[in-house]
Amino acid sequence: MAAPYIVALQNSAEDLRRILLRELEVPPKCQPWSSKILVADSLDHEALHRIQLALMGDEVLPPCRTLLFHRSPCPGVERALVAMGIGDVIEESAQALEVIRSRLQRWEQVDAALCLPLVADNLIGGSAAWVGALRTIAECALFSSAAVLLTGQTGTGKELLARMLHSLDPQARQHELVVVDCTTLSRDIAGSELFGHERGAFTGASSARDGAIACADGGTLFLDEVGELPLELQAQFLRVLQEKAYRRVGSTQWQRASFRLVCATNRDLMAEVAEGRFRADLYYRIAAMTCRTPSLAQRRSDIPSLVRHFIAHAGGGDAPAASPSLLDYLAARHYSGNVRELYQLVLACMRRYAGAGPLSLACLPDEEIQAWGADGAAAQAEAPLWHAAYVDDFVRAALRENVGLKELGRMVEAAAVRLALEESESITAAASWLGVTPRALHLRKAAARGPDLH
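Above: the chain's sequence. Below: its structure in token form.
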């Protein structure tokens, strides 16, 4: 089990911290850390403030990889902490160490799955929103056989996540992944496509044929755009899920089938249920676990990595680099089609690439450049550089947790002070880098210093 980073939030919690260090066998110096445990004696206002700073100010470990271990019960606080995104809140008890170990081991298994080539080489991006979705899928695949519903805008990678889930599922991956695009199912053939048919079941049925359910037996059935499934077919499919059995069209015999079900939709299925266009009982069957894929606007910091990946995929061994100006433009642009639209735009640039030097703005399609116009060009010139997207991710997460502007400023200043000191050879050099005097930096360093970690 990978070692966690353990922090005592109060001097009175130092004994609990030492117990965890001993029982979890944490070495004196171990990096990188895979998780973090915050230890508190009591959950008073100051402790909660420090927890918030620890969650929002960590640039490496997300809040979901943080545990809070505390001594004094405080029922009203736990809900607020979970809402902040903390991984779990564990009260001191006889079973506490076992609970902590089980949480850490599960996180380690999930993170190990994300490092596998089939995931790391195909699902590109390191933004918090995207990694959170990947972790949800990995946990579903490794520890549950429940049906999974993928939601989100078109072009956000729902099918890629479905394939990832199938590949990580230790049982289903031994069999087929069967994909059914529900938008292509006409009312006349939908039953046959799902359930199969017997010879002579309808005009043109010259021989018996297996449907998607039979083909997916033992594996995974992926229903893309499940919201398009006709109402009459929804009732029949619900029975398949309830009974784990189906009948071919034109047959009276029931056949058994067992499969992992994954569905995807860009519709609001709860709204569809309210309007009577989707069955409520089927919805709760297919949405045992849900995962919303983030839009490209929610993961702008991933755009440079995605662009490089798409260029390498299209260019093979002689893939060019993208110029900084092109990366800036692509990162600031709006994508109604999300990652799919970005991919097509990169391919269009590659088709105009002359074969020497980097891909540049001039490689963009004519219609893209012409659409700028005077106003568009000015707007792009004022757009933030691509690396500013990382700041956007951090600020967006902080605002969602009701972090005020003053507190946000303190957090950013503390991070700037810490990084400057880490990267500089002396206080004087760090102060010069930050544009302050050495005395001012000493004062800021003291103000930014968190709880004693030792």
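The chain has four domains: 5-114, 128-292, 296-381, 404-448.
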